[in-house]
Amino acid sequence: MAQRKQAVTIKHVARDAGVxxxxxxxxxxxxxxxxxxxxxxxxASIDRLGYVPSIAAQRMGGSRSYIILAxxxxxxxxxxxxxxxxxxxxxxxxxxxxTKCAEHGYRMLIELVxxxxxxxxxxxxxxxxxxxxxxxxxxPPHSDNPQILALLQARAIPFARIGSTGxxxxxxxxxxxxxxxxxxxxxxxxxxxxxxxxxxxxxxxxYQLSGxxxxxxxxxxxxxxxxxxxxxxxxxxxxxxxxxxxxxALLACEPRPTAIIxxxxxMAFATLEVASALGLDVPGDLSLVSFDxxxxxxxxxPSLTAIDQPVAETAARAVDLLISQQRGDDxxxxxxxxxxxxSLVVRGSTAAAKS
Amino acid sequence: MAQRKQAVTIKHVARDAGVxxxxxxxxxxxxxxxxxxxxxxxxASIDRLGYVPSIAAQRMGGSRSYIILAxxxxxxxxxxxxxxxxxxxxxxxxxxxxTKCAEHGYRMLIELVxxxxxxxxxxxxxxxxxxxxxxxxxxPPHSDNPQILALLQARAIPFARIGSTGxxxxxxxxxxxxxxxxxxxxxxxxxxxxxxxxxxxxxxxxYQLSGxxxxxxxxxxxxxxxxxxxxxxxxxxxxxxxxxxxxxALLACEPRPTAIIxxxxxMAFATLEVASALGLDVPGDLSLVSFDxxxxxxxxxPSLTAIDQPVAETAARAVDLLISQQRGDDxxxxxxxxxxxxSLVVRGSTAAAKS
DNA sequence: CTGAAAGCGCTAACAC
DNA sequence: GTGTTAGCGCTTTCAG
Lengths: 355, 355
What we know:
2 copies of one chain form a homodimer.
Chain A: H1 10-17, H2 21-28, H3 36-49, H4 55-60, E1 67-73, H5 74-83, H6 89-103, E2 107-113, H7 120-131, E3 135-138, H8 146-155, E4 159-162, E5 173-176, H9 179-192, E6 198-202, H10 208-223, E7 233-235, H11 240-251, E8 259-262, H12 265-277, E9 287-292, E10 305-308, H13 311-326, E11 338-339, E12 343-345
Parallel strand pairs in A: 1-2, 1-3, 3-4, 4-5, 5-11, 6-7, 6-8, 8-9, 9-10
Antiparallel strand pairs in A: 10-12
Helix pairs in contact in A: 1-2, 1-3, 2-3, 6-13, 9-10, 11-12
The structure holds a DNA duplex.
């Protein structure tokens, strides 16, 4: 059992420096009104004693908890982990979010929340009161969940919404990864390769970004004078099976599309399989672009040309804003939504259309 | 800024149930001496009010923090995340550890610690005093780091060591994934396929498990009457480059090994490349078995026969023991080290030796 | 079996 | 500028 008392507390430092607790606290928190002299003296004691404040006590004292909570969909996340398909969304969130948190002395905690359950409110509410995070990051498909947003609003906890434009006016820091622009990037790449029949496998409707990607596809198709016919659009559910169905439907069309954009890697893999089963060569007979650029995109045959989603960077941005916001660093009110653009990584699955 | 006061506290529940704070606390903590009647009444109030205790306050009160800290190597972990090679060690730790924590009302927090730096002690020490975790999980290559172990001992924080036999007597709960047995499994599989020249690419020396795998290889080779010659053993560093060097060395030997076991997937991929560059067919001319079975093992051509490391299960086990130990559930003193065995997943990279 | 008191380490609010 | 005083919400004593 961890001992009840802490080794070196603020009291020890105060005594050692010959000042009051409050002064030490002030130094720790970088409060303006401290004489440089005092500051140095206290800091010296802190360093000598190796004092580190207890975040539990800090929270109890009424200030920050130094915890940022990252909410992810339980079912999907656990499935991704169990299936071991190489989805590294969580890793990228940690890479960006956790390291940024560390820079500011914060910790990032992952919390899995079940949406399907109507306990969302109870479940998330419990986590919030137990942890009392200083900020919350919500990820798709939760980023626009009104229940969650309302709860956060009610508790006055700052939150960032990844994959949301925040157009609903439900508050929070809105960040997107430029889904529409990314889709356009994919279409442009294919159009420039001479493709005219460019199919699109959309993501499920409960992800707002699914719609944006479709929008981008439509817009860019139009820009190139191409017909974004309904028959060129199928919807998947981000799974291999869903991708298989969608790819089959798309490739059964006449005229057959010469290129397909899949809204995530899993569905792209499925498309690869379907093409192969149909005797179609990729990229000879069919060019393929996917979204996400998870690790396996490099390992398929051929490797996948893919839209890289800047998950780490977006998470880092979210953390940064959350922390500076609640610190009152209202430097420049950032325009919403914040847009972190992805990029197109060209690999082996795309080639010039046969003429 | 999060409000200073909590919505519903233990006080409210006490008043609502018409009992003292203490009684509520007792009910919450399942302390023996409470009359069933009382218990029911209090529980009813808790439920009605939706009371959830603040973990910060719980910790302040002198009890648990409900936090388990998982220590990972900073450099390696960040590199894995940035390289996006599909290493899902952290994900599997979370899958097993976090879900098990959740079952007990605990949270798992990942902490990246830099070993190379001699600040280990300061760095980890700071995390420990800031967070005051109820338990710590140490992962390779830290599991046997005497500095870390001493620190944990000194602070009397229960800890679990993944990938350690605990033979050093430095305390803690020792868990291994049966590295020796797994290596034997790999050798046996190959021997049964008729291979006699079975090369081994070991992991770096700072990972204890590297040695165990070599031991397993040696032992099983002997068992099958095969010569574990020094020329059949090369050391890599778990990277692709290191694997490349090792594979080249191995495949330059005369007689050339007909099978190779690589201590992780990255080095196996490298071996695949080297073989291909040498015009060797896998598994026709060379059989290959790897360790880890990360997601990409299924995606190479051919797919990799691999040892699956039960990371999730091991992490779950560690959490379980940590929690029950510090709860004083000294039911049956588990024999150390705890051994969670992996399994061999046979895929396309192994075949019968040419006779 | 239950209650009352004291205190955990820290910070906000107010004095000086 | 700095010190003093009250808590924060909970649990551990210790009484009854």
